[in-house]
Amino acid sequence: MNVLLDHLPQFREGFLGTLSITAASAALALVLGVVIAGFRVSPIPPLRAFGTAWVTLLRNTPLTLLFLIAFFVVPQIFFPGTSPFVLAMGALGCYTSSFVCEAVRSGINTVSLGQAEAARSLGMTFFQTLRLIVLPQATRSVIPPMSSIFIALTKNSAIAGAFSNTELFNVSKLLSDKGFAIGWIFLWIALCYLVITFAISGLFRLLENRLEVAR
């Protein structure tokens, strides 16, 4: 208990850091994932090709490699002076967006084709149909896998601690380097991650219950 109480400010800072990078990366992944899913089901071949390439490339690239590219290539060539938080958010958000995309695309495929055909018969464009007709109906099918994706994102955020970001893994490394018992450090870090993942799971369970159809 002394490990926690004597270093409560560090644990609090790491906890808030993990929350911040998880929330920011989740928002980026959600926006990108929905857009890329729209590309993947688009009738425009170049958009479909771009969406397929995005998902295939990111899902089959190790996350650590994406972090290395984000921190050692992107600032040198594209955006010099970018903060470590933004770079970590970009790496995590882009990586997770490929999984969000596939979850959203699976949800889109559960919507009856007649819905889209009816919308087209009314003169709606593809993107109007997607935004107003298909995606609202696909939401029920998308929520359960989204919970697992964002829980995985929370755990993946630990990699950001190795790249100059203050989060829970970074705190454990700093305290262990000072000679504190690694077992107790990992225990408190694990409990912090459990709090975050249980909160995410509870939020998505609440959304699922709100949107479920009475049978």
UniProtKB/TrEMBL annotation:
GO molecular function terms listed in the Swiss-Prot or TrEMBL record: transmembrane transporter activity
Biological process, per Gene Ontology: amino acid transport
Pfam families the record matches: BPD_transp_1 (PF00528)
GO cellular component, one term: ATP-binding cassette (ABC) transporter complex
Signal peptide interval: none
Top-level taxonomic group: Bacteria
Localization of this protein: Cell membrane
Keyword 4Fe-4S: no
Membrane topology: Multi-pass membrane protein
Bilayer-spanning residue ranges: 15-39, 60-79, 181-207
CDD domains on file: TM_PBP2
Alphabetical keyword list: Amino-acid transport, Cell membrane, Membrane, Transmembrane, Transmembrane helix, Transport
Family: Belongs to the binding-protein-dependent transport system permease family. HisMQ subfamily.
Protein name (Swiss-Prot/TrEMBL): Glutamate transport system permease protein GluC
Source organism: Streptomyces malaysiensis
The organism's taxonomic lineage, starting at the top: Bacteria, Bacillati, Actinomycetota, Actinomycetes, Kitasatosporales
